[in-house]
Amino acid sequence: MTVTPPTVSPWTVRVAAQLTVLAAAAFIYVTAEILPVGALPVIAADLNVSEGLVGTLMAGYALIAALTTVALVRLTARWPRRRALLVTMVCLTVSQVISAMAPNFAVLAGGRVLCALAHGLMWSVIAPIGVRLVPPSHAGRATAAVYVGTGLALVVGNPLTAALSELWGWRQAVVAVAIAAAAVTLAARVLLPLMPAERARAGSAGRPVHGRGLLTLSLLTLIGVTGHFVAYTFIVAIIRDVVGIDGPHLAWLLAGYGVAGLAAMAAMARPLDLWPKASVTAALVVLAASLVTLAVLSAQPRAGVTTGVVMVIGTVAIVLWGASSTALPPMLQTSAMRTSPEDPDGASGRYVAAFQVGIMTGALVGAGVYEAVGLTAMIGTAAVLITAAMCGALAVRDVFNRSRDLSTR
Question: Which part of the chain is the Major facilitator superfamily (MFS) profile domain (predicted)?
């Protein structure tokens, strides 16, 4: 009789602690990135500049990250992965200290530049580190665990820094982020293994070759992220003018958007390991359906008897939008790494660069269409782009693979 050895779970206490540190790093980084959104009026008043100028901090951040990611990933290709992550966290901490002490807008923008320079590198190494902590069969779940930090930044981090900015001042909120970043840096140094770089460990030389699969996935990412941010940039206007919710209830729906995203990431983590293409396609289908629904609601003339129905349908669409859009990034980044198992960090860097370009393009296209044509056309544009990405995901072959070894320490 053959005795089957017991299966050892990869989710040990140590691995759980390591993934928690990575999720905390993602949480702090995203919270710092979007802090100007919640503190915008306070920063503008304190530095005596317009709110529009403060708003450029986000667009400038995305531009710098997009332009520097691939070069920095290549420059640090032979560094141990822990060192690369620690450098990005130190840059984040220093940038927050500079920002908190900024006497004017120019110095504040300079502090943000340092943070943005390291942003792409951080996202290029953090998911591969998480994947290498677990067996290949759990790569999607490890990536999703890291991305929990992103979801929490939207649900907890941004509202918390906005509240701190109103109560104590935006500088104190930035100091709190700096202290948290320093604490996470120390925890990462203590808990994470050194992790030699894949290229250095393999003894390979020269520039790694990335195949057509990574190029295809990066293009799909660019199209999908552009479509998402065409609409997401103006999600407050959509909730107010399409769904018909304003005031304190709007904040609750935004929170529901974020909570739905966290739940979707947890629910889709295991399917991502088992059926990656089906998981990505399903998320895109839900996202496209949500935006199409909102576009139809926006085009419908409002009548008093249908206001309640519109509000319910619109609320469901917003929640599903949050669930699908938040679940997609860990799916896409895991798939990007699997296209290049010999250089997952480089593949991840190209994915991150495509993502950042998508953020910029989406915000610019969304603003242009919104101003020139209106809200309905803007949401419709987003729906068309997401549908195009969905059709592309259905059509491609050998891109969403699950049997790639990414976990060697």
Answer: 18-400
Coil vs helix vs strand at 215:
helix
**CA nearest to 272, candidates 328, 197, 192, 190:** 328
**Contacts (Cβ under 8 Å, ≥6 apart) of 5:** none
Q: Is there a contact between 269 and 140 (Cβ–Cβ < 8 Å)?
A: yes
Name the residue among 306, 271, 208 with its Cα closest to residue 400. Answer: 271
Query: Residue 274 corresponds to which amino acid?
Result: L
Q: Are the beta carbons of 325 and 228 closer than 8 angstroms?
A: yes
Only one residue has tokens 């902590």, namely 133
- In degrees, to the nearest 5, what angle opens at C-alpha 210 toward C-alphas 205 and 213? 160
Please give the single-letter amino acid code of residue 216.
T
Cβ count within 10 A of residue 403: 8
Determine contact, residues 98/53, Cβ cutoff 8 Å. no
DSSP for residue 208: P
Structural domains of the chain sorted by starting position, each given as residue range(s) with its CATH number in brackets? 14-197 (1.20.1250.20), 212-395 (1.20.1250.20)
Report how far residue 33's alpha carbon sits from residue 115's, in angstroms, rounded to the nearest whole number.
Answer: 8
Query: What amino acid is encoded at 277 in this protein?
Result: K
Asked whether 329 and 265 are in contact (CB, 8 A), the reply is: no
pLDDT digit string, tens, across residues 70-85: 788 888 888 898 999 9
Write out pLDDT tens, residues 157-184. 877 887 788 788 889 999 999 999 999 9
- N- to C-terminal Cα separation, the chain: 35
Q: pLDDT > 70: what percent of the chain?
A: 87
DSSP state for residue 138 in the 8-state scheme = G
